[in-house]
């Protein structure tokens, strides 16, 4: 699991994802996954690029494919479902609107600096 989380974080950072948060949901009874990664890109092109990089590296390095990928066109929000880990890549205004961190505020949040 730690290797998966590291690859996801590094994949987001590769494309200069901003405001990266990992939510540990394992102690919640009604959790949809064990972990959420939430980040944002400064443009819809960057949002799409971050999501594509996560998918590419997960496939190449761990042999893992998404169970489901959803996203809007233009890419205001892309959601990558790896069953026990879900990656949300947002455009800033879309992230503010949905407030995923607030919805799952009972989880343990870890914020990461942008490198």
TrEMBL record:
Q: Which SUPFAM superfamilies has this protein been placed in?
A: Nucleotidyltransferase
Q: Which GO terms describe its molecular function?
A: ribosomal large subunit binding
Alphabetized InterPro entries for the sequence: Iojap/RsfS/C7orf30 (IPR004394), NT_sf (IPR043519)
Q: Does the record's keyword annotation contain Cytoplasm?
A: yes
**Could you tell me the keywords of this UniProt record?**
Cytoplasm, Repressor, Translation regulation
Gene3D superfamilies, per database record: Beta Polymerase, domain 2
Which terms in the GO cellular component ontology are assigned?
Answer: cytoplasm
Tell me where in or outside the cell this protein is found: Cytoplasm
- Which example biological process does GO assign this protein? negative regulation of translation
Q: Which PANTHER family match?
A: IOJAP SUPERFAMILY ORTHOLOG, MITOCHONDRIAL ASSEMBLY OF RIBOSOMAL LARGE SUBUNIT PROTEIN 1
Q: Which family does it belong to?
A: Belongs to the Iojap/RsfS family.
Which HAMAP family does this one have? Answer: Iojap_RsfS (MF_01477)
Biological role stated in the UniProt entry: Functions as a ribosomal silencing factor. Interacts with ribosomal protein uL14 (rplN), blocking formation of intersubunit bridge B8. Prevents association of the 30S and 50S ribosomal subunits and the formation of functional ribosomes, thus repressing translation.
Tell me, how does this one assemble? Interacts with ribosomal protein uL14 (rplN).
- Name of this chain's protein: Ribosomal silencing factor RsfS
What is the scientific name of the source organism? Neolewinella marina
**Gene for this chain:** rsfS
